[in-house]
Amino acid sequence: MPRLHDPETRSAIEGRLNRLTASTRAVWGRMSPAQMLWHCNQAIASAMGQAELDPSKPPLPRAVIKFLVMNMPPMRNAPTNKALVAREERDFDAELERCRRLLVEFAARPLDGPVQDHPAFGRMTVDEQSRLQAKHLDHHLKQFGV
To answer: What does R_g of the chain's alpha carbons equal in angstroms?
Structure first.
């Protein structure tokens, strides 16, 4: 499974980000491109301890949710952590620049770095987080046809 730490994966994501515009229409869902970027940015930031996620107990055991999210194809319009819901419009250019910066910053973290606790998925290594964030970005870039 691709990781954000893989230069080829990161380069491909960056290329797709370059094709995204503020007016790109979603293939599914209700988010604007700026809201989608904010949503993905918050997820990456939370993996680095820079943003908080909602600590509410998930509907299934964390190990089950983690297995499903890490191993199954992403579902369209799947529930998300409340802290990742973009409730207002965002500045596209600012979120795009933030995304580019977060990609570099996240990929600079050592893969053997400290394990972190995720409120929905439980204990996650940096390697698992790297795979999760690559999969998450890929899913949402597909949402906008890029």
So the answer is: 14
